[in-house]
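Re: weekly structure request thread

Next one in the queue (196 aa):
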Amino acid sequence: KKSVSPAADNTKVRTVSGFSGSGTKPLRIAANTFDRIYQKHGKECAADLYVRSPANDADLGREPTYWFVGKVVADPDAGPPPPSVRAAVLAQKRLVLEYAQRELRPQNLGGKYANGLQIWTAPGDSELDVVQNKVPLTRVEGSTADLLAEENFDVRDVGFNPEIYVGDEIRDGGLRVTRDEEGKPTRPVFEINEGQ
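Done, posted below.
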């Protein structure tokens, strides 16, 4: 069997050429796929995504900061075996990172801060629990080359729904949390008063 690099195998990876605007079509396809899978299976097949730039944290002299960049889904009806959240992230890793550094938060994740970007996950639709320090984040390590071992994996079985900033978020930034280097909360759990 001929060996194919994962980047050249369009059934394994969503590709982005690296040119400005080149991610528009793959992003649209990923978002449509996300919607189709999420509508059928809900948050149980999803994971929230956060991106961290250790270079930006060091430059600003602050605690590790994790920026919410969107969500991924993995279709549990696909396979066998069904794709894992890790595979969903790895198959779309470049798309997620390109979007985060170019479109969402270039001042913290792009340019000189783009080297060494990390992707972290939390359970699907857990943004409030993450903010309240109830949920740790889990780092996704690996590369698209790891997908070659998953023979039945197909990128059409995973999707990405990017976070979109509106209003003041464009200037000030959207959801972000601080954690330690292992993704664990550094502050105690707190509740948000629903009556206020």
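Residues 1-8 have pLDDT under 50 and may be disordered. The longest strand covers residues 65-74.
Next request, please.
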